[in-house]
Amino acid sequence: MKPVKLHPGRERRILQGHRWIFSNEISNSLSDFEPGSWVEIFSHKGVPLGTGYINPRSLIAVRLVCPAGQKPSRDYFHSLLRKAIARRAEFLYPDSQCYRAVYGESDGLPGLVVDRYGDMVVYQITTLGMSLMEPLVQELLMEIMQPRVLVFRHDAQVRTLEGLPLEKGIAFGEIPPEHWVDVDGIAFQVSPLEGQKTGLFLDQRDNRQALRRWVRGKKVLDLFCYNGAWSLSAALGGAEEVVGVDQSADAIAQAANNALRNGVESSCRFQRDEVFHFLKGANRHAFDVVIVDPPAFVKTRSALAEAKKGYTDLNRRALMALKPGGILVSCSCSYHLNESLFREMLLQAAQAAGRQLRLLEARGQAMDHPVLLSMPETHYLKCYFLEAF
Where does the S-adenosylmethionine-dependent methyltransferase domain lie (predicted)? Predict the structure, then answer.
Protein backbone atom coordinates (compact mmCIF):
# COMPACT_ATOMS: atom_id res chain seq x y z
CA MET A 1 0.00 0.00 0.00
CA LYS A 2 1.20 3.49 -0.83
CA PRO A 3 1.62 5.94 2.06
CA VAL A 4 -0.50 9.08 2.37
CA LYS A 5 0.99 11.87 4.46
CA LEU A 6 -1.12 14.61 6.01
CA HIS A 7 -0.33 18.29 6.37
CA PRO A 8 0.75 19.41 9.86
CA GLY A 9 -2.08 19.43 12.42
CA ARG A 10 -4.56 17.58 10.20
CA GLU A 11 -4.39 14.37 12.22
CA ARG A 12 -6.34 15.76 15.21
CA ARG A 13 -9.78 14.97 13.78
CA ILE A 14 -8.64 11.49 12.74
CA LEU A 15 -7.25 10.71 16.19
CA GLN A 16 -10.68 11.60 17.64
CA GLY A 17 -12.27 8.94 15.43
CA HIS A 18 -13.36 10.78 12.28
CA ARG A 19 -13.09 8.56 9.21
CA TRP A 20 -12.77 11.04 6.33
CA ILE A 21 -9.64 12.72 4.98
CA PHE A 22 -10.22 15.58 2.57
CA SER A 23 -8.08 16.24 -0.48
CA ASN A 24 -6.71 19.54 0.91
CA GLU A 25 -5.42 17.73 4.02
CA ILE A 26 -3.01 15.52 2.04
CA SER A 27 0.56 16.64 1.33
CA ASN A 28 1.22 14.00 -1.39
CA SER A 29 0.38 14.56 -5.03
CA LEU A 30 -3.01 12.91 -5.47
CA SER A 31 -2.26 12.12 -9.10
CA ASP A 32 0.19 9.46 -7.85
CA PHE A 33 -2.63 7.26 -6.57
CA GLU A 34 -4.82 4.75 -8.36
CA PRO A 35 -8.51 5.56 -7.74
CA GLY A 36 -10.00 3.03 -5.33
CA SER A 37 -6.65 1.66 -4.17
CA TRP A 38 -5.77 0.97 -0.54
CA VAL A 39 -3.42 3.39 1.20
CA GLU A 40 -1.82 3.77 4.62
CA ILE A 41 -2.28 7.11 6.39
CA PHE A 42 0.47 8.88 8.33
CA SER A 43 0.58 12.15 10.23
CA HIS A 44 3.06 14.84 9.15
CA LYS A 45 5.43 13.43 11.76
CA GLY A 46 5.09 9.88 10.44
CA VAL A 47 2.70 8.47 13.05
CA PRO A 48 0.54 5.73 11.48
CA LEU A 49 -3.19 6.57 11.62
CA GLY A 50 -4.76 3.61 9.80
CA THR A 51 -5.56 2.32 6.35
CA GLY A 52 -8.34 3.11 3.92
CA TYR A 53 -9.15 3.52 0.26
CA ILE A 54 -8.48 6.60 -1.84
CA ASN A 55 -10.26 8.39 -4.66
CA PRO A 56 -8.19 11.35 -5.91
CA ARG A 57 -11.20 12.66 -7.87
CA SER A 58 -13.35 13.12 -4.77
CA LEU A 59 -13.31 15.92 -2.20
CA ILE A 60 -13.37 13.16 0.42
CA ALA A 61 -10.13 11.69 -0.84
CA VAL A 62 -9.62 8.92 1.73
CA ARG A 63 -12.11 6.95 3.81
CA LEU A 64 -10.51 5.19 6.73
CA VAL A 65 -11.47 1.57 7.32
CA CYS A 66 -8.81 -0.15 9.42
CA PRO A 67 -7.03 1.16 12.54
CA ALA A 68 -3.27 1.52 12.60
CA GLY A 69 -1.56 -1.86 12.44
CA GLN A 70 -4.56 -3.60 10.86
CA LYS A 71 -4.55 -4.58 7.18
CA PRO A 72 -7.71 -5.10 5.13
CA SER A 73 -8.53 -8.78 4.73
CA ARG A 74 -11.49 -11.07 4.22
CA ASP A 75 -11.47 -12.04 7.89
CA TYR A 76 -11.45 -8.39 8.96
CA PHE A 77 -14.47 -7.51 6.82
CA HIS A 78 -16.26 -10.70 7.86
CA SER A 79 -15.80 -9.66 11.50
CA LEU A 80 -17.06 -6.11 10.89
CA LEU A 81 -20.17 -7.31 9.08
CA ARG A 82 -20.93 -10.09 11.55
CA LYS A 83 -20.66 -7.74 14.54
CA ALA A 84 -22.82 -5.04 12.90
CA ILE A 85 -25.56 -7.53 12.01
CA ALA A 86 -25.47 -9.27 15.39
CA ARG A 87 -25.75 -5.94 17.20
CA ARG A 88 -29.10 -5.28 15.51
CA ALA A 89 -30.41 -8.83 15.62
CA GLU A 90 -29.42 -9.65 19.20
CA PHE A 91 -29.30 -6.29 20.98
CA LEU A 92 -31.18 -3.44 19.29
CA TYR A 93 -34.14 -5.20 17.63
CA PRO A 94 -34.05 -8.82 18.83
CA ASP A 95 -37.71 -9.44 17.97
CA SER A 96 -37.55 -7.94 14.48
CA GLN A 97 -36.62 -9.30 11.07
CA CYS A 98 -36.31 -5.77 9.65
CA TYR A 99 -33.46 -3.40 10.42
CA ARG A 100 -30.56 -1.50 8.92
CA ALA A 101 -27.83 -4.06 9.33
CA VAL A 102 -24.94 -1.80 8.27
CA TYR A 103 -24.79 1.98 8.47
CA GLY A 104 -21.59 2.99 6.69
CA GLU A 105 -18.94 4.78 8.73
CA SER A 106 -20.77 4.14 12.02
CA ASP A 107 -20.10 0.42 11.54
CA GLY A 108 -16.59 0.88 10.17
CA LEU A 109 -17.72 0.20 6.59
CA PRO A 110 -17.72 3.54 4.74
CA GLY A 111 -19.71 3.57 1.52
CA LEU A 112 -21.93 0.61 2.45
CA VAL A 113 -25.45 0.35 3.83
CA VAL A 114 -27.34 -2.91 4.21
CA ASP A 115 -31.02 -3.36 5.07
CA ARG A 116 -32.75 -6.60 6.06
CA TYR A 117 -36.39 -7.10 5.11
CA GLY A 118 -37.08 -10.58 6.39
CA ASP A 119 -35.44 -13.07 4.06
CA MET A 120 -34.61 -10.28 1.57
CA VAL A 121 -31.44 -8.22 1.92
CA VAL A 122 -30.85 -4.96 0.06
CA TYR A 123 -27.45 -3.27 -0.02
CA GLN A 124 -26.18 0.01 -1.46
CA ILE A 125 -22.63 1.05 -2.28
CA THR A 126 -21.81 4.73 -2.72
CA THR A 127 -18.00 4.90 -3.00
CA LEU A 128 -15.45 3.70 -5.52
CA GLY A 129 -13.31 1.90 -2.95
CA MET A 130 -16.24 -0.14 -1.66
CA SER A 131 -17.47 -0.73 -5.21
CA LEU A 132 -14.22 -2.50 -6.06
CA MET A 133 -14.91 -4.80 -3.11
CA GLU A 134 -18.46 -5.61 -4.20
CA PRO A 135 -17.84 -9.30 -5.04
CA LEU A 136 -16.52 -9.80 -1.49
CA VAL A 137 -19.44 -7.82 -0.02
CA GLN A 138 -21.92 -10.06 -1.82
CA GLU A 139 -20.10 -13.20 -0.75
CA LEU A 140 -20.03 -12.17 2.91
CA LEU A 141 -23.66 -11.02 2.98
CA MET A 142 -24.74 -14.36 1.53
CA GLU A 143 -22.59 -16.24 4.03
CA ILE A 144 -23.62 -14.30 7.17
CA MET A 145 -27.23 -13.30 6.46
CA GLN A 146 -28.24 -16.21 4.19
CA PRO A 147 -31.00 -14.32 2.35
CA ARG A 148 -33.33 -15.84 -0.22
CA VAL A 149 -32.99 -12.65 -2.27
CA LEU A 150 -30.05 -10.22 -2.44
CA VAL A 151 -30.74 -6.88 -4.15
CA PHE A 152 -28.41 -3.97 -4.92
CA ARG A 153 -29.66 -0.37 -5.06
CA HIS A 154 -26.77 1.62 -6.51
CA ASP A 155 -28.94 4.55 -7.58
CA ALA A 156 -28.01 7.21 -5.01
CA GLN A 157 -26.92 10.41 -6.75
CA VAL A 158 -23.85 10.68 -4.52
CA ARG A 159 -22.29 7.87 -6.59
CA THR A 160 -21.79 10.30 -9.46
CA LEU A 161 -19.30 12.24 -7.31
CA GLU A 162 -17.23 9.05 -7.15
CA GLY A 163 -17.44 8.42 -10.89
CA LEU A 164 -19.79 5.47 -10.43
CA PRO A 165 -22.84 4.60 -12.58
CA LEU A 166 -26.39 4.57 -11.24
CA GLU A 167 -27.85 1.08 -11.38
CA LYS A 168 -29.97 -1.43 -9.48
CA GLY A 169 -30.74 -5.11 -9.79
CA ILE A 170 -30.82 -8.57 -8.26
CA ALA A 171 -27.54 -10.17 -7.22
CA PHE A 172 -29.12 -13.44 -6.08
CA GLY A 173 -32.53 -15.07 -6.03
CA GLU A 174 -35.84 -13.79 -7.33
CA ILE A 175 -38.10 -11.07 -5.93
CA PRO A 176 -41.61 -12.43 -5.27
CA PRO A 177 -44.63 -10.60 -6.73
CA GLU A 178 -45.43 -9.32 -3.23
CA HIS A 179 -43.06 -9.14 -0.28
CA TRP A 180 -44.59 -8.20 3.08
CA VAL A 181 -42.62 -7.56 6.25
CA ASP A 182 -43.51 -6.73 9.85
CA VAL A 183 -41.95 -3.63 11.40
CA ASP A 184 -42.97 -3.15 15.03
CA GLY A 185 -46.33 -4.81 14.51
CA ILE A 186 -47.16 -3.08 11.23
CA ALA A 187 -47.21 -4.94 7.90
CA PHE A 188 -45.56 -3.17 4.97
CA GLN A 189 -45.19 -4.17 1.37
CA VAL A 190 -41.57 -3.78 0.26
CA SER A 191 -40.65 -3.06 -3.35
CA PRO A 192 -36.84 -3.08 -3.20
CA LEU A 193 -36.28 -2.03 -6.81
CA GLU A 194 -39.10 0.52 -7.08
CA GLY A 195 -39.49 2.11 -3.66
CA GLN A 196 -37.52 5.03 -2.27
CA LYS A 197 -34.27 4.38 -0.39
CA THR A 198 -33.88 0.58 -0.29
CA GLY A 199 -37.61 -0.05 0.09
CA LEU A 200 -38.66 1.44 3.45
CA PHE A 201 -37.69 4.38 5.65
CA LEU A 202 -36.38 2.50 8.66
CA ASP A 203 -34.72 5.53 10.26
CA GLN A 204 -38.06 6.77 11.67
CA ARG A 205 -39.23 3.48 13.18
CA ASP A 206 -38.55 4.44 16.82
CA ASN A 207 -40.16 7.85 16.30
CA ARG A 208 -43.27 6.29 14.79
CA GLN A 209 -43.51 4.08 17.87
CA ALA A 210 -43.25 7.18 20.08
CA LEU A 211 -46.10 8.83 18.13
CA ARG A 212 -48.64 6.36 19.47
CA ARG A 213 -48.75 7.89 22.94
CA TRP A 214 -49.94 11.24 21.50
CA VAL A 215 -52.70 10.27 19.06
CA ARG A 216 -55.47 8.35 20.83
CA GLY A 217 -58.83 9.78 19.81
CA LYS A 218 -57.16 12.49 17.72
CA LYS A 219 -57.50 13.73 14.16
CA VAL A 220 -54.08 13.38 12.52
CA LEU A 221 -52.57 14.91 9.37
CA ASP A 222 -49.56 13.09 7.84
CA LEU A 223 -47.73 15.26 5.29
CA PHE A 224 -45.39 13.64 2.72
CA CYS A 225 -46.93 10.36 3.84
CA TYR A 226 -45.18 8.14 1.22
CA ASN A 227 -46.25 4.56 2.04
CA GLY A 228 -48.31 5.63 5.06
CA ALA A 229 -45.90 4.53 7.78
CA TRP A 230 -46.67 7.45 10.13
CA SER A 231 -50.38 7.20 9.28
CA LEU A 232 -50.52 3.50 10.13
CA SER A 233 -48.73 4.10 13.44
CA ALA A 234 -51.25 6.80 14.28
CA ALA A 235 -54.23 4.62 13.34
CA LEU A 236 -52.93 1.65 15.31
CA GLY A 237 -52.23 4.01 18.21
CA GLY A 238 -55.94 4.80 18.40
CA ALA A 239 -56.27 7.91 16.24
CA GLU A 240 -59.90 8.63 15.34
CA GLU A 241 -59.09 9.85 11.82
CA VAL A 242 -55.88 10.05 9.78
CA VAL A 243 -55.36 11.99 6.56
CA GLY A 244 -52.19 11.23 4.57
CA VAL A 245 -51.01 13.55 1.78
CA ASP A 246 -48.40 12.89 -0.90
CA GLN A 247 -48.00 14.07 -4.48
CA SER A 248 -47.00 10.61 -5.74
CA ALA A 249 -49.84 8.46 -7.07
CA ASP A 250 -47.75 5.32 -6.49
CA ALA A 251 -47.11 6.33 -2.87
CA ILE A 252 -50.81 6.97 -2.23
CA ALA A 253 -51.74 3.59 -3.74
CA GLN A 254 -49.12 1.84 -1.64
CA ALA A 255 -50.28 3.63 1.53
CA ALA A 256 -53.89 2.61 0.91
CA ASN A 257 -52.81 -0.99 0.29
CA ASN A 258 -50.79 -1.02 3.53
CA ALA A 259 -53.76 0.40 5.46
CA LEU A 260 -56.01 -2.33 4.06
CA ARG A 261 -53.51 -5.04 5.00
CA ASN A 262 -53.36 -3.70 8.58
CA GLY A 263 -57.12 -3.39 8.92
CA VAL A 264 -57.15 0.41 9.45
CA GLU A 265 -58.58 1.47 6.09
CA SER A 266 -61.71 2.85 7.77
CA SER A 267 -59.73 5.38 9.81
CA CYS A 268 -57.11 6.29 7.17
CA ARG A 269 -57.74 8.46 4.13
CA PHE A 270 -54.97 9.16 1.61
CA GLN A 271 -55.05 12.11 -0.74
CA ARG A 272 -52.85 12.81 -3.72
CA ASP A 273 -51.82 16.45 -3.61
CA GLU A 274 -48.78 18.69 -3.44
CA VAL A 275 -48.31 19.39 0.26
CA PHE A 276 -48.03 23.18 0.07
CA HIS A 277 -51.13 23.27 -2.15
CA PHE A 278 -53.02 21.09 0.32
CA LEU A 279 -52.06 23.29 3.27
CA LYS A 280 -53.12 26.45 1.46
CA GLY A 281 -56.63 25.00 1.18
CA ALA A 282 -56.77 23.36 4.64
CA ASN A 283 -59.10 24.73 7.29
CA ARG A 284 -57.46 26.51 10.22
CA HIS A 285 -57.16 24.44 13.39
CA ALA A 286 -58.55 21.35 11.63
CA PHE A 287 -56.18 18.76 13.15
CA ASP A 288 -55.06 17.67 16.61
CA VAL A 289 -51.73 16.29 15.39
CA VAL A 290 -49.75 17.30 12.28
CA ILE A 291 -46.74 15.29 11.11
CA VAL A 292 -44.25 17.07 8.82
CA ASP A 293 -41.70 14.61 7.43
CA PRO A 294 -40.48 16.00 4.09
CA PRO A 295 -37.68 14.73 1.86
CA ALA A 296 -34.35 16.50 2.25
CA PHE A 297 -34.68 20.12 1.10
CA VAL A 298 -30.93 20.76 1.48
CA LYS A 299 -28.61 18.75 -0.74
CA THR A 300 -25.63 21.13 -0.51
CA ARG A 301 -24.46 23.77 1.96
CA SER A 302 -24.87 26.46 -0.70
CA ALA A 303 -28.61 25.71 -0.85
CA LEU A 304 -29.10 25.98 2.93
CA ALA A 305 -30.47 29.53 3.15
CA GLU A 306 -33.16 28.97 0.51
CA ALA A 307 -34.06 25.54 1.89
CA LYS A 308 -34.41 26.95 5.41
CA LYS A 309 -37.04 29.36 4.07
CA GLY A 310 -38.89 26.38 2.61
CA TYR A 311 -38.80 24.48 5.92
CA THR A 312 -39.99 27.59 7.76
CA ASP A 313 -42.94 28.19 5.44
CA LEU A 314 -43.89 24.50 5.53
CA ASN A 315 -43.96 24.41 9.34
CA ARG A 316 -45.77 27.76 9.51
CA ARG A 317 -48.54 26.41 7.30
CA ALA A 318 -48.66 23.16 9.30
CA LEU A 319 -49.12 25.17 12.50
CA MET A 320 -52.00 27.08 10.92
CA ALA A 321 -53.78 23.74 10.39
CA LEU A 322 -53.12 22.64 13.97
CA LYS A 323 -55.53 23.20 16.85
CA PRO A 324 -54.34 25.18 19.88
CA GLY A 325 -52.79 22.66 22.25
CA GLY A 326 -52.18 20.28 19.37
CA ILE A 327 -49.00 18.31 18.61
CA LEU A 328 -46.62 19.19 15.78
CA VAL A 329 -44.22 16.41 14.81
CA SER A 330 -41.60 18.17 12.71
CA CYS A 331 -38.74 16.34 10.99
CA SER A 332 -35.76 17.11 8.81
CA CYS A 333 -33.42 14.58 7.22
CA SER A 334 -31.15 17.32 5.82
CA TYR A 335 -27.69 17.01 7.38
CA HIS A 336 -26.79 20.62 6.53
CA LEU A 337 -29.77 21.87 8.56
CA ASN A 338 -28.19 21.09 11.90
CA GLU A 339 -29.93 20.91 15.27
CA SER A 340 -29.36 24.58 16.04
CA LEU A 341 -30.69 25.75 12.67
CA PHE A 342 -33.62 23.34 12.97
CA ARG A 343 -34.67 24.92 16.28
CA GLU A 344 -34.18 28.39 14.84
CA MET A 345 -36.39 27.46 11.89
CA LEU A 346 -39.13 26.17 14.21
CA LEU A 347 -39.04 29.38 16.26
CA GLN A 348 -39.39 31.48 13.13
CA ALA A 349 -42.26 29.31 11.87
CA ALA A 350 -44.05 29.59 15.22
CA GLN A 351 -43.60 33.35 15.34
CA ALA A 352 -44.95 33.71 11.80
CA ALA A 353 -47.98 31.58 12.73
CA GLY A 354 -48.58 33.46 15.97
CA ARG A 355 -47.96 30.36 18.08
CA GLN A 356 -45.69 29.21 20.90
CA LEU A 357 -44.01 25.79 20.94
CA ARG A 358 -43.26 23.57 23.90
CA LEU A 359 -40.73 20.81 23.23
CA LEU A 360 -42.05 17.43 24.35
CA GLU A 361 -39.48 15.12 22.77
CA ALA A 362 -36.29 15.79 20.81
CA ARG A 363 -35.62 12.63 18.85
CA GLY A 364 -33.33 11.49 16.04
CA GLN A 365 -32.68 8.51 13.81
CA ALA A 366 -33.41 4.94 14.86
CA MET A 367 -30.93 2.91 16.89
CA ASP A 368 -29.84 0.93 13.85
CA HIS A 369 -28.58 4.22 12.31
CA PRO A 370 -26.05 4.94 15.10
CA VAL A 371 -24.34 8.32 15.38
CA LEU A 372 -20.57 8.49 15.88
CA LEU A 373 -19.88 11.38 18.23
CA SER A 374 -16.55 11.84 16.48
CA MET A 375 -18.29 12.19 13.12
CA PRO A 376 -21.19 14.69 12.95
CA GLU A 377 -21.90 13.62 9.38
CA THR A 378 -23.45 10.40 10.71
CA HIS A 379 -26.19 12.44 12.45
CA TYR A 380 -28.76 13.76 9.99
CA LEU A 381 -32.31 13.14 11.25
CA LYS A 382 -34.10 15.57 13.57
CA CYS A 383 -37.58 14.73 14.85
CA TYR A 384 -39.26 17.03 17.39
CA PHE A 385 -42.57 16.45 19.11
CA LEU A 386 -43.90 19.90 20.03
CA GLU A 387 -47.00 21.20 21.78
CA ALA A 388 -48.33 24.26 19.94
CA PHE A 389 -50.36 26.82 21.89
Answer: 176-335
* Per CATH, domain 74-180 is 3.30.750.80: yes
Position 199 scores a pLDDT of 86
Question: Under CATH, which architecture does the 2-66 domain have?
Answer: Roll (2.30)
Task: Give the pLDDT confidence of 72-125 residue by residue, as tens digits.
Answer: 999 999 999 999 999 999 999 999 999 999 999 999 999 999 999 999 999 999
**228 vs 268: CA distance, rounded Å:** 9
| Model confidence pTM above 0.90 | yes
* Bridge partners, residue 77, by sequence: none
In one-letter notation, the amino acid at residue 386 is L
What's the CA dihedral at 231, 232, 233, 236 to 10 degrees? 130
Nearest in space to 106 (alpha carbons), one of 200, 20, 22, 198? 20
Task: Say which CATH topology domain 201-388 has.
Answer: Rossmann fold (3.40.50)
Residue 87 neighbours by CB under 8 Å, 6+ apart: none
Q: What angle do CA 55, 57, 63 make, to 5 degrees?
A: 30
Domain spans of the chain, in order of start: 2-66, 74-180, 201-388
Instruction: Identify the band that residue 210 occupies on the pLDDT scale cut at 50, 70 and 90.
Output: very high
Contact 233, 212 (CB under 8 A): yes
From the number of C-beta atoms within 10 Å of its C-beta (0-12, 13-18, 19+), residue 324 rates as exposed
Cα 290 to Cα 155: distance, rounded to the nearest angstrom = 31
Give one DSSP letter per residue of 10-63, joined into a string: TTHHHHTT--EEEGGGB-S-GGGS-TT-EEEEE-TT--EEEEEEE-TTSSEEEE
Catalytic residue among 98, 225, 268, 333: 333
